[in-house]
């Protein structure tokens, strides 16, 4: 009497379920995540931080600057920048891999045809011909969630690639705005230096006239000529720097530097003010942080995929068709053939699977560290720009006072020099001070624009407070 096989089958099933219960991916340790600060120190405690959440990146933030030329540059960059196209291609690749992973959930159906000539035990000693044609069907039953986990990991990879594409767009937008405002600041500096050259030229004419009259020495003439030449040299250096920035803009907007040009223009307007008290949802909308978060979750899911390699595989198969020794008889009803089957395979020992699980766990550990670093960098970026904006505002006020005083000093010195009350050296010193103060004022203004752009990027594309999901906010 043969033993009852049912207890053995039951033991195999129980063992498989125990393995499945032990294959849960490891949880993310909250102690390794960076703490959320109560507020941003750079804003005097007026801005609060929010916990990580999924929000889309904001769109045309640069229009807050009200510059049509910048709007046109942004449109060109979004359409033709190669770094954005590379990120978009990688996203399409991730989407294709997701479709491949999802395809494992579906039955596999195929057609098959074959011909055989030879001897087989079932065909007698003489050589014979066997022809066949039919269809095959196979389906892997995802009893233990192996395919589901792999699909989830692929979907998270796709989400990460989508966030990286948004990050690439935001980075290019910030680079375009930063480069454009730097170029416009150089235009303003060029105008200041040219005004100074004209002032030196007027002083030179007056000094040369007084030299011919015998009122001043030749040294005074040479000194003014040196100051005028130095100012002209500064103007040429600014033009050289502007040309390089123009070529950089050409690359950012996807054009050839030799054919791209941006006409000089008067720099008007001011940087938009960042309102105080708006929550800095830096973790909620920064695409690079979102990408790191999705990569961490994908790595966690892949640990589960690796652990699932120890689970039994259950395959259902079926086939049906015709087989005959003659071509004319292949598709006759009497030549029909069919079959169904089921296969269960359970690995017992495989060192490769253990190595795969260890590699997946190490990948998850690295992804967790990368996510933590990205969060810390995000808070640092916001703190840097908030502090810079606050200090630049105070510096701009001080520079405005310095420029007003320097202009007044130049006007008084010019009048006193023409009246013969002061030396030419004192006049030149006043003009140099005015030039230095005006250029510094322009540079501080440019820094305010550039820092505002960097803050927008640090906040993920906007400082508006959208309809955020339910996340904990501490004030």
From TrEMBL:
GO cellular component: plasma membrane
GO molecular function: efflux transmembrane transporter activity
Keywords: Lipoprotein, Membrane, Palmitate, Signal, Transmembrane, Transmembrane beta strand
Signal peptide range: 1-27
SUPFAM superfamilies listed in its UniProt record: Outer membrane efflux proteins (OEP) (SSF56954)
Protein's UniProt keywords contain Signal: yes
Matching Pfam families: OEP
Intracellular or extracellular location(s): Cell membrane
Keyword Acyltransferase: no
Membrane topology qualifier: Lipid-anchor
Family in the record: Belongs to the outer membrane factor (OMF) (TC 1.B.17) family.
Protein name, UniProt field: Efflux transporter outer membrane subunit
Source organism of the structure: Ramlibacter montanisoli
């Amino acid at each position: 009497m043969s033993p009852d096989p049912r207890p053995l089958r039951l033991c195999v099933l129980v063992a498989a379920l125990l393995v499945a219960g032990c294959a849960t991916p490891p949880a993310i340790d909250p102690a390794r995540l960076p703490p959320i600060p109560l507020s941003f120190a750079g804003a005097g405690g007026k801005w609060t931080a929010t916990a990580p959440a999924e929000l889309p990146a904001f769109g045309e933030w640069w229009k807050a600057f009200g510059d049509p030329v910048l709007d046109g540059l942004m449109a060109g960059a979004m359409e033709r920048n190669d770094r954005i196209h590379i990120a978009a291609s990688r996203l399409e690749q991730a989407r294709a891999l997701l479709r491949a992973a999802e395809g494992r959930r579906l039955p596999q159906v195929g057609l098959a045809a074959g011909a055989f000539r030879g001897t087989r035990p079932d065909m007698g000693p003489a050589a014979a011909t066997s022809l066949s044609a039919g269809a095959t069907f196979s389906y892997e039953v995802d009893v233990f969630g192996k395919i589901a986990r792999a699909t989830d990991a692929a979907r998270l990879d796709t989400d990460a690639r989508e966030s990286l594409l948004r990050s690439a767009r935001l980075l290019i937008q910030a680079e375009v705005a930063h480069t454009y405002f730097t170029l416009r600041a150089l235009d303003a500096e060029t105008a200041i230096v040219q005004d100074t050259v004209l002032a030196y030229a007027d002083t030179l004419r007056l000094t040369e006239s007084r030299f011919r009259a015998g009122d001043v020495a030749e040294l005074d003439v040479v000194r003014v000529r040196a100051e005028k030449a130095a100012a002209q040299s500064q103007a040429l250096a600014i033009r050289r720097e502007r040309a390089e920035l123009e070529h950089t803009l050409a690359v950012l907007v996807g054009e050839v530097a030799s054919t791209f040009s941006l006409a000089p223009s008067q720099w008007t307007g001011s940087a938009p003010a960042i309102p105080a008290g708006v929550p800095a949802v830096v973790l909620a909308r920064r695409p690079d942080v979102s990408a790191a978060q999705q990569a961490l979750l994908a790595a966690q899911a892949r640990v589960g995929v690796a652990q699932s390699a120890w689970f039994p595989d259950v395959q259902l198969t079926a086939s049906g068709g015709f087989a005959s020794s003659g071509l004319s008889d292949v598709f006759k009803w009497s030549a029909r053939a069919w079959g169904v089957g089921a296969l269960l395979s359970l690995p017992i020992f495989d060192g490769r699977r253990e190595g795969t699980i260890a590699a997946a766990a190490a990948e998850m550990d690295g992804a967790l560290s990368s996510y933590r670093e990205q969060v810390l960098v995000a808070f640092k970026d916001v703190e840097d720009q908030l502090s810079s904006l606050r200090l630049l505002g105070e510096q701009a006020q001080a520079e405005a006072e310095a420029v007003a005083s320097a202009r007044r000093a130049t006007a008084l010195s010019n009048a006193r020099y023409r009246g013969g009350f002061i030396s030419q050296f004192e006049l030149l010193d006043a003009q140099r001070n005015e030039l230095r103060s005006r250029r510094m004022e322009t540079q501080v203004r440019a820094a305010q624009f550039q820092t505002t752009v960097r803050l927008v990027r640090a906040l993920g594309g906007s400082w508006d407070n959208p309809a955020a999901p339910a996340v904990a906010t501490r004030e």
